[in-house]
């Protein structure tokens, strides 16, 4: 394990197995349809890349990048779109792919925003769910893992842009962020 980690929470093998299951379920549920996968940069990138290769129906990609207003350690719920979708989503089946749902503020803002653009449907696929910290309710249609209230990195998730390339998910050692429960967004 990386020396900045306290513990491996999800191994490469566990993630791989679950991503395969999610891809199979999504392919069944959307049989005879096509989907537009909307990835939320940058955290969802690694998960999305693996997930779409397990989906067998016609799949298109687009991406949004968002940043939460407020301090760097607290999600305010006011989200700024740094990079919007390239194309219209009107009449299309949208599958939002996110790394982790924590407070739920980012996702709520984004799904309201996308809903107003007239898609045929919107569903959400999140690799990780941290329900203990939810502020806004979020309906996760496809969830990889429910995790405890720990700050995790790896498999796309960062701390100050580090650790995204780790192939597993680990709990970051509190000595790296100075102790206390973290609340970093984006
Ligand atoms: P929220 O649901 O609070 O609006 O924000 C979710 C975002 O916060 C995620 O997309 C992610 O960028 C960040 N986040 C929340 N919990 C964690 C965590 O445990 N580790 C990392 N690296 N990011 C997190
Ligand atoms: Mg994210
Ligand atoms: Mg981040």
Describe this structure as you would to a colleague:
This protein is α/β, with parallel strands linked by helices. It has a single domain, classed as Rossmann fold (3-Layer(aba) Sandwich). A six-stranded mixed beta sheet has the order 4-3-2-5-6-7. Helix 3 links the parallel strand 5 and strand 6. Helix 1 packs across helix 2. The longest helix has 18 residues. One magnesium ion binds next to strand 5.
Describe the structure concisely for a colleague:
The protein has 186 residues and is α/β, with parallel strands linked by helices. It is built from 4 helices and 9 strands. Helices cover 22% and strands 31% of the residues.
List the defining traits of the structure above.
186 residues, alpha/beta, Rossmann fold, six-stranded mixed sheet, 31% strand, binds guanosine-5'-monophosphate, binds magnesium ion
Mind sketching the topology for me?
Blueprint: E1 5-10, H1 12-29, E2 35-41, H2 45-52, E3 59-68, E4 79-83, E5 93-101, H3 105-115, E6 121-129, E7 142-146, E8 152-153, E9 169-172, H4 174-177
Parallel strand pairs: 2-3, 2-5, 5-6, 6-7
Antiparallel strand pairs: 1-9, 3-4, 8-9
Helix pairs in contact: 1-2
The protein binds guanosine-5'-monophosphate and magnesium ion (MG) (2 copies).
């Amino acid at each position: 394990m990386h020396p900045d980690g306290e513990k491996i929470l999800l191994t490469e093998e566990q993630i791989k197995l679950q991503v395969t299951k999610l891809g199979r379920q999504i392919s069944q549920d959307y049989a005879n349809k096509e989907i537009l996968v909307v990835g939320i940069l940058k955290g969802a990138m690694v998960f999305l890349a693996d997930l779409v290769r397990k989906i067998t129906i016609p799949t298109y990609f687009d991406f949004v990048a968002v940043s939460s207003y407020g301090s760097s350690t607290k999600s305010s719920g006011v989200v700024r779109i740094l990079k919007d979708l390239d194309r219209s989503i009107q009449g299309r089946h949208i599958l939002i792919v996110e790394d982790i749902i924590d407070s739920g503020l980012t996702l709520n803002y984004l799904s309201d925003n996308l809903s107003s653009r007239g898609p045929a449907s919107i569903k959400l696929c999140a690799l990780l769910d941290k329900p203990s910290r939810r502020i806004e309710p979020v309906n996760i249609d496809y969830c990889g893992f429910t995790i405890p209230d720990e700050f995790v990195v790896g498999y796309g998730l960062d701390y100050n842009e580090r650790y995204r390339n780790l192939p597993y998910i680990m709990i970051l050692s509190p000595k790296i962020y100075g102790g206390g429960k973290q609340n970093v967004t984006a």
